What we know:
33% of the residues lie in helices and 23% in strands. By secondary structure, it is an alpha/beta fold. Strands 3-2-1-4-5-7-6 form a 7-stranded mixed β-sheet, sandwiched between helices.
Amino acid sequence: MTDSPSITAYWDAAAADFDAEPDHGLRAKETRAAWSDLLTSWLPSGRSRVLDVGCGTGSLSELLAESGHRVTGVDLSPRMVDRARAKLSAAGLSGRFLVGDAAAPPTGDERFDVLLSRHLVWTLPDPEAALGEWVGRIRPGGTLILVEGRWRESGRSGVPYVAGAETLPWHGGVTADVLSAAVRPLVTELCIESLAGDAALWGGPVTDERYALVARV
């Protein structure tokens, strides 16, 4: 099992170079447009209150704010949160970012229209408990969006994840079948959308499993 200080230190160390990955920084016009189009297709029309758990440097939060949504981002890493705040501020956008455990977001009794998480559940010591916690943060009729996959490697390229990571239930990612089985009892509707075939999303072709789970609560 992993410990929180080690995980925080790992992602703090990753913050400076995190956006160099095409699908993290969304710096390329084509990649940014591809993610923007996906978010638009998944989110309900109108202005939504969105909780972005494991928000990292805030690239998806920025896209959501650009579209007029009210975004709250949560990340365990203070340096990631600092970069997310700076990113939206530089773009002249509003967003709230909190340092905290994404598995139990520090948002009190607030309920959101949408909860979004990307590439996070593999890091969680109890992902099924986190899923239950997340669904509880969504208002009835709201939407859960999980962008996940089964990875060739976990953590930063060339830098192994924290000690004990191999004991995590979904270390290395989670298949769509396994994640669907965990989420289905918590929601009223669920669909899986494959994302592996769209090279624009990742800055190039990928060979591992990548998908989005979109569910109605």
